[in-house]
Amino acid sequence: MTTLAAALAVTAAAAGTLWRLQGDEPETPSPPPSFIGEAREGCKPGAAGAFLEAHPPPSPAHAATCHALAGDAEAARQALADLDDGERREAAGVVFGLIHPIADAGDEEAAGVGMELVLELWPENYQARYHAGLFAYGRGRDAEARAHLERFVAEYRNDDGFRQRALRALAALDAITRGETTARPALSAH
């Protein structure tokens, strides 16, 4: 097992435990470490289909995660299309558990499509909202970024790196809106 795969497995397991302690959120089971490490490398734009054929995913949620990592939102949704509502909600927990460590490591671009998918299925997930907001910010989708980040800041009261990064993005959006700058500053990781 690679170091990245081991780190992702431990982080995903810890995230699942935290969510279960918070209440009615779907369980985030620990993903198979070999799939996570291989998927992070193999699920690239234009390559996800071939990767999934060569490495059959353990669940539709894992297939959706691979497509999301490749930036293909429609294929990610299609991977979950045959699931009923309850199963899709559980799948959102799996996708979140797989993608969250990537986002927390600062790779909002790789994790963004997956976080948007999680929000479609689990709209009260404030952590997914934070990462979807930063993804939208990075993509120049300012209205969407503002909506996600303002809601995150309203819901998340801890004065930590996550909140501070969201506030910095909102301040940058304000400066852009006022015409003070056209530059979109990069946001350091929390």
Outline of the structure:
This protein is mainly α. The chain is built from ten helices and no strands. It is globular and about 50 Å long.
Topology at a glance:
Elements: H1 3-22, H2 33-42, H3 48-54, H4 60-69, H5 73-79, H6 85-104, H7 108-121, H8 126-139, H9 142-155, H10 161-177
Structural account:
- This protein has 190 residues and is mostly helical.
- It has ten helices and no strands.
- The chain is globular and about 50 Å long.
* Uncertain parts: 1-23
Total count of helical runs of at least 4 residues? 10
Could you give the distance between the termini? 27 Å
Beta strands, count: 0
- Helices and strands, in order, run as HHHHHHHHHH
Helix content: over 70%
Main beta sheet strand tally, sense and closure: none
Structural class: mainly alpha
Key phrases:
single chain; mainly alpha; 10 helices; 190 residues
